[in-house]
Amino acid sequence: KNEENPGSELPKVNAAPAVDLAAWLEELPPTMAQAQLLALALPRRTETFSYLQPNMQLALARRLDRRDLVEIVTQMSADDRADLFNHLTPEEQQRLLRGLAREEREDIRRLSAYAEGTAGAIMTSDYATLAADMTAHEAIELLRRKAPEKETIYRSYILDCERRLIGSIRLHELILAAADTRIEEIMDHAPVSVALDSDQEKVAQLIARYDLLALPVVDKGGRLVGIVTHDDAADAMQAETTEDFQKIATVRPFSQSVREASMGVLYRKRIFWLVLLVFGNLFSGAGIAFFEETILAYVSLVFFLPLLIDSSGNAGSQSATLMVRALATGDVALKDWRNLILRELLIALALGATMALVVFPVGLLRGGSEIALVVGLTMLLVVIIGSLAGMSLPFLLSRLRLDPATASAPLVTTISDAVGVLVYFWIATAMLSL
Amino acid sequence: KNEENPGSELPKVNAAPAVDLAAWLEELPPTMAQAQLLALALPRRTETFSYLQPNMQLALARRLDRRDLVEIVTQMSADDRADLFNHLTPEEQQRLLRGLAREEREDIRRLSAYAEGTAGAIMTSDYATLAADMTAHEAIELLRRKAPEKETIYRSYILDCERRLIGSIRLHELILAAADTRIEEIMDHAPVSVALDSDQEKVAQLIARYDLLALPVVDKGGRLVGIVTHDDAADAMQAETTEDFQKIATVRPFSQSVREASMGVLYRKRIFWLVLLVFGNLFSGAGIAFFEETILAYVSLVFFLPLLIDSSGNAGSQSATLMVRALATGDVALKDWRNLILRELLIALALGATMALVVFPVGLLRGGSEIALVVGLTMLLVVIIGSLAGMSLPFLLSRLRLDPATASAPLVTTISDAVGVLVYFWIATAMLSL
B288 touching A, CB under 8 A? Predict the structure, then answer.
């Protein structure tokens, strides 16, 4: 196909990896990108198309005539195909399905049906299967014939007559074995697998734990329905981690690139929690209003207000963020809360005591020994309260089956602030005998 | 070896994956763990040992007699071996080196010499190489003989006579090719590679971008010195991300499990920034002290203080965290700052205006129209200031070659607080004509 259109193609196009080619196409206006894409030979055209961002894929899918689109889509890997399909309008989906062979049609319908964030949604049906009674030689010959279609042949799966997963074997084990060895003698009889509705975070954790290239996905009857490859699991994990960062900063999750997100999207994702936390902060305000007389009598107390409530919030953010991350990586589980809360109390005690010592001389300088005592004691208490609240909130959310990352630093800060204001002025009112 | 000691081994030991076996050994007292480890047959013993946590490896390495230790260490993959070596004391290193063959000895010395966080530190020397003029058949035969030693043979590297990397080829390409095809006809002539001192984050980004199983590492002369496998890159990336979470919450980075970290470690990692930020907060206090008369005249202004400074900090944390993550994943680069700052200004304007509208009626209720105007205007300004500061700080740090993740939410909050206090009382003093 290259010969049809030699002038419009840049020299680097022939040598560059498909992912770089895709990045280059995305900089072009759609008409030119379309021309450049069609100028590529077919397997390379599909590979490049698969690497384009969803928006660009969609724009091109809508411009291409059906014959060209079907040609590309037929060759795409099953999971990429299902992803593209999910982005199309119902009419476009029908138009596309009409052009595909029955096998691809059913595969798309099946793969696009699983809930986002599950193993089913990120698995692919491009895997190689073998029978237990084949010899190593027969297996290699079969893989040679099938290899070009399959996303990975480095591990093959062994199924019984009802498609139940009974083993797996790696390509180099087949190559190393004597030609007449039967697969069942050398296969791994207990391959790790996950259920269709397993969380994608768990999939990525298992792949990392067992250093796998791919993880098989089975239905309730133990039948193999797909595999999740290590690169797709890594992409899913990276997206989940970015979501955790967003949530920790009270940005509602969005999957676009920050660089390319529109102002409207960023505004909507950020304003929700900002406004919600304003109402949370009114509690702090109410606490202050309640103690207005104390403030008028000792206006120097206001000097320490930002310092005390910020310190409480900072200690709480530390604990909350450590726990959010530990829960996400599997370092800590729900049941560990009991063991960790006592340790947290002791650490918070040490942190609070240190900070009380730091702030005490400032209190002496600004307001005398009584104020210094009030400020020091408040510091000790609010650091403990902030730490315990920050540590517990992610567990509580997890227990309620909510995402622990919702225990954002600003949320913990707002809670700590309200409690801190009350503790501060309550101690002041009591100790300064007002 | 299993027959020597059949009674002390649990039934599950024979079937379980090595990583699970390692987790089980870690729950045992060292004496029993040692006995169980030595009861395993050799390739499995080494694999299990490789999966143990550094502390446990070290404890066992110190208990085992030299012959047993050397037997295990000789079979370990080159990178795991170098890691263990780096944890030993100089005397133990010498004791171990004396037991090893010359080849392993030099390999350890070389791999353990690279700075942490670089490609050199996480690469392994277990890779397969081929010559360009071999046939596919010769190559497969060579790999069959070498395979048991190599961590991955799914991609082989083609070197010229001076060990310069001139190509790479995948195992299935060799298997699919006709037996007499010469490697140079089918190899990839421009394999992606990195330099020895490349950041491990960049290594992980390249592996993800090009969907690689391993990335070759070359020295300044283009000679192949090692490969980084996808699982080691993923582990390194996960550790870097956990570090980013820690830094964002002003916890100084530590690599241990949060669940297993001692109280002393957690105290030390957390107290540094908490105390530093206390001094930062004294600026807010100083601002308040400067405007004490305004506060005495309009004590209801204090009601809005936590709300205004928190909102500024929250908006700033959002921007900072989004940028820290985008810089870490490569979504945003240093040069993008110019393009993003204008967008940020417009978004912050919209956010600030919305929040001013939310807080205005509260101002009316609590203090009348003048206070409401002061509070609304302050809100608009501090949200803009917080957002711009939060967005710019990670870029500034990155520009100064510091880690952008140091632009933690609490640091941004403290800066925003100090500016917010000044803006608030300055506007109040001006508008309430004090």
Answer: yes
